[in-house]
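Before surveying the methods themselves, let us examine one representative protein, written as a sequence plus integers encoding its fold.
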Amino acid sequence: MGSRDADIDFTFTDPITVRVALDALARVGWSMDVSLGGLSYMIDDADGMFEWYRSSPADAGEVLARLDTPGNLP
């Protein structure tokens, strides 16, 4: 089975956390593909530059907590 990548731009009228967005997607059938062995995510660091990070699927809860911290919400 092949894989597909897509970029989706979301626009929200109110602030939303990453966890809330992913929970909403999961309710309509989306799921995390852990077969690649890791999670990649991006955070706008203090220097104003986006930095990519990689983590284990077992650390998904910790990654979501980091993404949902108040400093990362904007």
In short: Helices lie at 18-27, 60-67. The first helix runs from residue 18 to 27. The longest strand covers residues 39-44.
